[in-house]
Write a structure and sequence with these properties.
By secondary structure, this protein is an all-alpha fold. It contains 2 helices and no strands. Helix 1 packs across helix 2. 4% of the residues are buried.
């Protein structure tokens, strides 16, 4: 359960960072619930992509185990 909590906290922090960056780039746009939902969605997709890339890199960097011969 700890992994789920850390994943949710990471996604929330990423969404907050995306929101702050958006507000810094577009200061005249009023924040809304729709924008917050969009930021959360983008954060979850980015987190998923980053996780898949890290898993792929780990798999490529892991030493190949020799096959056992009978």
């Amino acid at each position: 359960m700890k992994e789920w909590t850390l994943a949710a906290a990471g996604a929330a922090l990423l969404a907050l960072a995306i929101g702050l960056l958006f507000h810094w780039v577009y200061p005249t746009v009023e924040p809304s619930a729709e924008l917050a939902g969009l930021f959360c969605f983008v954060a979850l997709v980015l987190r998923l992509l980053i996780g898949k890339l890290l898993a792929l890199l780990r798999r490529l960097r892991a030493p190949h185990e020799p096959e056992a011969r009978p």
